[in-house]
Design brief:
Length: 307
Amino acid sequence: MDYTLHQLRVFLKVAEHQSITRASEDLFLTQPAVSIQLKKFQEQFSIPLTEVVGRQLYVTDFGKEIAEAAQKIIDEVEAINYRTIQYHNQLAGKLKISVASTGKYVMPYFLSDFMSQHRGVDLVMDVTNKTHVVKALEKNEVDFALVSVIPDQFKTNSVSLLSNKLYLVGSPKLHLKDKGNDKRKFDEYPFLFREPGSATRMAMEEFITRNKLPTYKKMELTSNEALKQAVIAGLGYSVMPLIGIKSALESNEVEIIPHKGLPIVTQWNLIWLKSKSLSPLAEALLKHIEQERDRIVKETFSWYEKY
């Protein structure tokens, strides 16, 4: 056996995604480069690690066992690196944070200075919808989660970072803003929805139900960015978090449509399991956020206050 750490990392990504394309994207490598490393790694085993059925790649049972062993090796190597850094009295380790999709416009600003100050810290930030964020936290797969709605199915601790304002928005070309609160304006164009499981989707459905708005037709998009582009194109209107449409508002590509009961205001909260024993690294991040939160909000999100 003469495999390298690089080959182990490549195989782990392929096993995680069951896709060479997605593995190459995560590793910032070309697909041929990933395929070559996977082939070299496979050559060291007489039993197949993967198989292709139709056009889909699958990891064999043996491959899953090798992936599990590879993960342990990589974890031990990282632990050695962290211990080396800690020997020099520097903070080191890996932070894992799951972020509800629109939170990608929030969380990086609360991490930037901390990461710059502690070069021995590695960050894994998964951006997904609320349902997957909550599952990752519940399974203890992450240290923290950033959500706008705190789950009630298990006990958590939390620290508030920023208000989350949701407005009804549309393209100026639809002239919806000029039609006041008349519900009939909603007969003309469809609502654009996020996918089920999204906190934005839940807030939007509550808004529609509460106001008894007509939704003769709807479209569903699986990311906030896709939703914003659809609104800009004039496909319809939607309820969207203000935090994700700053540039579109400033360039007049979208406009806020006044309506009773809006904005919907929640809070972006960084949460963690109440039963979890936080690492010194996680504790240090919380301390940093508590000390710097007001400054970060003032310097980065002051534009937020005019809406």
